[in-house]
Every structure is written in C-alpha cells, then in structure tokens.
C-alpha cells in the first residue's frame, strides 16, 4: 500500500478492528490535542490574570446568548461586552440592532476568532473587538458606577457582581445571567450606606 494515499489508509483503517492499544493511542492523542488547545488557545489570556480570578474560558451557548438578548429587550444603543470571548454575544446584539457593538478581550487567539466570525457573518466593518486587560481594573464595579449613566444596564453571565443587587435574572446554572440597572444599583448602595451610618443592620 502507498503510505501517502489517504484513501487506501482509510480503507485499511475501516477493515481493521481497534484493539486495546489502539483505543489507548486514541485517548492519548485526544489528551495531547486538548493540551495543545489549552496551551496555544486559552493560556495566553491567563498569564497576567491574578490566580484567584482565573476562570476557564467557556463559550456562551445559544441559550445563554438568548438570555442576554432577553434582558436587553426594549433597549437600543451601544453595547460593550467585557471579556467577549469568541465574540458571539457582540455579534448577536448587533444583529438585534445594537450599535456600536464592541467587545473587549485579553486573549489574542479569541480576538482573532471573534474577527473571523464577524467576517464570515459579513459584519467585519460593523462590530469591533479590542484587546484590553480588564484585570488591570482593580475595582470594576467602582469604575462602572463612576462612568455609566443611570439608564445603562450591565449584564453579567455566569459570574454575578458580588456587591450589586440585580434588577433581574434569567436562566439556571451555566446559562444564568444577571441584569443590573445602574440607577437602581446606585440607589441601593446609597441606601445601604445611609443605613450603615445610622447603625441599622444592612440586609
């Protein structure tokens, strides 16, 4: 058999039964592939992230994307995705009429993948993905409260803001998303601060 002929190689493979060694080789090969993906695709985005804040990249599934869009229903204008991953939420939001639609992501491989998705969808000139190290922001909650207007809505997927009271939630488990209306968050935090000064227990 000609070893360079992929057709003959496939025919021979189909005619053979895979023994225990063959299964082991497939498993080892899969393990090496997973490590290669982790080392080349995911690790670059973790190198400068504090250890206690490191979380694995898990792409948003269709249900989570839909949950985000549901919490944005009735709204319009600019959308910014912090930690946009492969960019699918930014792209979906743009298709729903949000513009400008911007994603910030530290991992350069995910940025390239985001731009590839946008190009394939014919939206490369309409959505924007930028490399930004969000972990330089020691207090993201404080920064958002200082810069966003009261009518802004912040939506968090899978990881809620620890000190904010959500306006609405939707989904369960990995599909769960939280919505925070900035005006409501400011009011709640002001009430908590006033109660603390008066010695009233804060619930």
From TrEMBL:
Q: Which UniProt keywords are listed?
A: Membrane, Methyltransferase, S-adenosyl-L-methionine, Transferase, Transmembrane, Transmembrane helix
The record's section on InterPro entries has:
FAM173A/B, SAM-dependent_MTases_sf
- Transmembrane stretches, by residue range? 20-43
| A Gene Ontology BP annotation from the UniProt entry | methylation
* Lineage top rank: taxon: Eukaryota
What would you give as a GO molecular function for this chain, any one?
A: protein-lysine N-methyltransferase activity
The family line of this record is: Belongs to the ANT/ATPSC lysine N-methyltransferase family.
The protein depicted here goes by the name Adenine nucleotide translocase lysine methyltransferase
Q: Which organism is it from?
A: Monodelphis domestica
């Amino acid at each position: 058999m000609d070893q360079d002929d992929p057709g003959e190689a496939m025919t021979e493979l189909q005619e053979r039964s895979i023994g225990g060694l063959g299964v082991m080789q497939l498993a080892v090969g899969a393990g090496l592939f997973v490590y290669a993906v982790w080392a080349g695709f995911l690790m670059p985005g973790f190198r400068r992230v504090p250890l206690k804040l490191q979380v694995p990249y898990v792409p948003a599934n269709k249900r989570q994307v839909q949950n985000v869009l549901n919490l944005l229903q009735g709204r319009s204008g600019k959308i910014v995705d912090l930690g946009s991953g492969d960019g699918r939420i930014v792209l979906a939001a743009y298709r729903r009429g949000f513009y400008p639609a911007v994603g910030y992501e530290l991992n350069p491989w995910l940025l390239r993948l985001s731009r590839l998705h946008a190009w394939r969808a014919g939206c490369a000139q309409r959505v924007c993905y930028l490399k930004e190290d969000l972990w330089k922001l020691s207090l993201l909650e404080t920064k958002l409260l200082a810069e966003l207007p009261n009518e802004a809505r912040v939506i968090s997927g899978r990881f809620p803001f620890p000190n904010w009271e959500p306006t609405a939630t939707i989904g369960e488990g990995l599909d769960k998303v939280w919505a925070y209306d900035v005006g409501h968050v400011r009011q709640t935090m002001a009430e908590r601060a006033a109660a603390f000064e008066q010695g009233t227990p804060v619930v």
